[in-house]
Design a protein that fits this description.
It contains four helices and six strands; from the N terminus they run E-H-E-H-E-H-E-H-E-E. The chain has a six-stranded mixed sheet with strand order 3-2-4-1-5-6, sandwiched between helices. It is globular, with a radius of gyration of 18 Å. This is Histidine phosphatase family protein. InterPro entries: His_Pase_superF_clade-1, His_PPase_superfam, PGM_Phosphatase.
Length: 233
């Protein structure tokens, strides 16, 4: 067995920025989940452009997105700014949800219907959708792939609020079940994982487009009836 010590350097550092997509055009307040056909709103496109400008000077060598339209459209200006082809990774998709396609507004949505209550019996799994543990596995694998593709540089990964929050919670050793209103993962935000070699050594969070995000959609904001029209992740 060798007694040599391996010394890690800055060349071993890789940053994977995991971005939530911008605002979606969703006037009916549908929980769109994995449904096709939901695109960025004009404001959402401005958010995507803002983050592309924010990252323009960074050493980004790989850009990848969930297959859903809103994620692809968010990632496009970032890939273009760096002269890169946009990759797609199915593992970055939104979490599965039994309420997909239903109205989920404050006081006027699916939770008022007793027939839906049976899906809410276990918030720890959760019983209404894709298990948190499954989200952790696929997201960690997707991040690892992005890290390998951009090793020694930076990658941008565009995904959705719940999978991003769950993988961050796992890395930071928090419980996976949580109050959705307290997720720190606003529209067009960046949750940045720094790897030294293959090990995550830090997690950062920034909101380059915060001034463009409607106040009621910021983390911790009190839901307002009739204004949750960008619901989803």
């Amino acid at each position: 067995m060798s007694n040599e010590t391996t010394h890690e350097t800055d060349d071993d550092l890789t940053v994977v920025h995991v971005m939530r997509h911008g605002e979606v055009a969703n006037p009916d307040g549908i929980l769109y989940g994995r449904l096709p056909g939901y695109h960025l709103s004009e404001l959402g496109r401005r958010m995507a452009d803002r983050v592309a400008e924010h990252l323009a000077s960074r050493d980004v060598t790989y850009v990848v997105a969930s297959p859903l339209e809103r994620a692809q459209e968010t990632a496009e200006p970032i890939a273009k700014a760096h002269g890169l082809d946009l990759a797609t990774d199915e593992r970055l998709i939104e979490a599965g949800n039994i309420f997909q396609g239903k109205t989920f507004g404050v006081g006027d949505g699916a939770l008022r219907k007793p027939g839906n209550w049976r899906h809410l019996i276990n918030p720890f799994r959760p019983s209404w959708g894709e298990p948190y543990v499954d989200q952790v596995v696929r997201m960690m694998n997707a991040l690892s792939t992005a890290k390998d593709r951009a090793r020694g540089h930076e990658a941008v990964v565009v995904s959705h609020q719940l999978p991003i929050w769950i993988v961050r919670s796992y890395v930071e050793r928090r419980r996976l079940w949580h109050d959705p209103r307290k997720r720190q993962c606003t529209l067009a935000s960046l949750t940045s994982f720094t790897y030294r070699g293959d090990r995550i050594v830090s997690v950062g969070y920034t909101e380059p487009a915060r001034d463009l995000v409607p106040a009621h959609l910021l983390a911790g904001a009190k839901p307002v009836k009739g204004k949750d029209k960008a619901f989803g992740a």
